[in-house]
Specification:
2 copies of one chain form a homodimer. With about 325 residues, chain A is an alpha/beta fold. Chain A contains 8 helices and 13 strands. In chain A, the strands form 3 sheets. A 5-stranded mixed β-sheet of chain A has the order 3-2-1-4-8, sandwiched between helices. The first copy, chain A, has a 5-stranded mixed β-sheet with strand order 11-10-9-12-13, covered by helices on one side. In chain A, strand 1 and strand 2 form a beta hairpin. In chain A, helix 3 crosses helix 8 and helix 5 packs across helix 6. Chain A starts with 6 loop residues before the first strand and ends with a helix. Chains A and B meet through helix 6 of A and helix 6 of B.
């Protein structure tokens, strides 16, 4: 046993409904994990008190381990400032995370948004091991992205870089929750897929059992299962989603020239249904010097642990650079 | 006089027709410059022999100065490999630049594309002094771009990152020299402006003296002068160009979150005619967290010297990092 082998970090993923936490060692193994309700209608102070209680209980199950840092992934989190600002699904306005945790823990705290945490997780423990230039796209309710360039997360001037979900597919296109029109995430996300198949219901005469389900009840999982059963419109919806995604990722490649683009999250789990059309469209829309160079890969992080591993990777990376 | 004050670098800008060279000191002053025809129909070997002759003659005019490095900006140049690969307007296939210069000079050589050189020039000597995250857009015959992120030029996995000119405005849009359709540079460049006003001639009934000029003879300068004279179609052509440019730069901001975007080159010299609509469209298409944050600035480098200063900045930067 070498010195430091008993060191662990706490990785936390704050979600709209639940918050996951886990202790992660230097090799990216999650040694213990737990989940608490976020209860984001209550003040942030109350949340952080409950978080430390759960974290301290969990730490007791890990005999002989020393906590050396805390990494937090959260929506609208800013690495530079250590803040969470106007998160879309939480009622907290502006949270200074290190300040909230200081009264409970005396270790370094690092904060970043969930997609950036996923990108760091892929680099340290997942599909991007050994890569210095890549993009992680998280296809969930929305479309998040984390960009790594020359081995570093790209934060930009204000710490908010990497909002590929809000690049524009069509300036007169679908209304987006952000107030703009035609954003990529209105097409390429779980909700985007549902919007697309509803559009296909209108434009096509092809029968589909999904036509019996209301807009509100229809989920991307139902579209996935229908596509597997041979539903033509469901397959077309995936085809269209991949077509749009590949086209816009070609723009990302023109900016960043990544070695790989890694797809992560619910929609990415649809496998070839989403990967095949995305890859075709990406290659077709690439500036010629980039063709046949950029790998399109699935995430290699275990689904349940990924956000916690990513948050753990964030603080391991921070500790390594601030020794 | 401190040690090193007599040190200078050679900056070279290889263009399709002419090649400019100049000696640049550590403060970004061009102490002497010259120009030779590129004569790119002859082999690269012949060109580099002529280049060193001219450079050595020019150096003799600078008594007491010591050459410590050579920086080269060229189309399709790759910083990582030191190569120029299939440059669009030169007949050279693949040139290993340091190898070509080794027999004449025994100092370090660094190579990059012209837009990257301009970005370094702006960072060290121009409008981006003190900035760590910015984008330079060169609006010439085409649209080039150089991206600086966290104080470093963004090269990506293969050294070719920063091809914003080939992001897609409309997948069914104008044919581009690269073989794709709807690339940004087919709209936002000197040639793009001319294509736009021709489209306006077709779609509008508005009179314009420019209608008397053939497609071949019409230049972006003529459109600029007509706009200044009050030609409505010429003004509309600038308005449309800025509208498209601002929309696509909003995508760049979503990726990179730069502190500033710097416009450089012929079209940028049109001042408010291009800056006003670009700024309006950029703000309108930005993801809300980026609004009112990103500066849109004109280049601060003297037009004649910029490419030489940029190439000089490249090698000064290289020398500083490889001490």
């Amino acid at each position: 046993m070498t010195i430091g082998d008993n060191e662990i970090v706490l990785g936390v993923d704050i979600g709209g409904t639940n918050t996951k936490l886990g202790y992660v060692d230097r090799l990216g193994r999650c040694l213990a994990s737990a989940s608490i309700p976020t209860d984001a209608d209550q003040p942030a102070k109350v949340f952080f008190r409950r978080l430390q209680q759960s974290a301290k209980e969990l730490l007791q199950s890990l005999k002989g381990k020393t906590l050396v840092g805390i990494g937090i992934g959260a929506p609208n989190a800013n690495f530079r400032k250590g803040t969470i600002e106007h998160p879309p699904n939480l009622s907290w306005d502006y949270v200074d995370v290190p300040a909230e945790l200081r009264e409970f823990f005396s270790v370094p705290v690092a904060v970043t948004n969930d997609a950036n945490a996923a990108a760091l997780g892929e680099m340290l423990f997942g599909a991007a091991r050994g890569m210095k230039d890549f993009v992680v796209i998280t296809l969930g309710t929305g479309l998040g992205s984390g960009i790594v360039s020359n081995g570093e997360l790209l934060y930009g001037a204000d710490g908010f870089a990497g909002e590929i979900g809000h690049t524009i597919v069509d300036p007169n296109g679908r209304f987006c929750g952000c107030g703009k029109r035609g954003c990529l995430e209105t097409y390429c996300s779980a909700t985007g897929l549902v919007r697309t198949i509803q559009e296909l219901f209108c434009n096509s005469t092809e029968p589909s059992r999904l036509r019996a389900i209301s807009f509100h009840e229809l989920t991307s999982e139902m579209v996935f299962e229908a596509a597997l059963r041979g539903d033509k419109l469901a397959a077309q919806a995936f085809e269209y989603t991949g077509h749009i995604l590949g086209m816009k990722l070609a723009d990302s490649v023109a900016h960043l020239s990544p070695e790989a683009i890694i797809l992560f999250g619910g929609l990415a789990a649809a496998g070839e249904l989403i990967f095949a059309p995305t890859q075709r469209s990406l290659e077709a829309h690439l500036f010629p010097i980039f063709r046949n160079k950029v790998k399109l890969l699935p995430s290699k992080l275990t689904k349940g642990d990924v956000a916690v591993l990513g948050a753990g990777a964030l603080i391991w990376d921070f500790l390594a650079k601030n020794k």
